[in-house]
Amino acid sequence: MIPKIYQTEMFINNEIEKYQDETYWGSEENINKEKELINYLLKNKIINETWLDNHESDTNEEWLKEILKLLK
Prior knowledge:
Blueprint: H1 5-18, H2 28-43, H3 49-54, H4 60-71
Helix pairs in contact: 1-4
């Protein structure tokens, strides 16, 4: 679990950096971390299902950057 906003920002920045490695995207690690992040964001009401629906056409990197904006 990602307990604090600062740690969430670090987590997201780390994920964005990992996307530079083409083998990371879609890996089991990537998918599990995205699920963890989405669950955390929903549970803490940082985003909701409507937000997810509105960003479903974004790339993973794009929606992570959008989440960073929400956290600031």
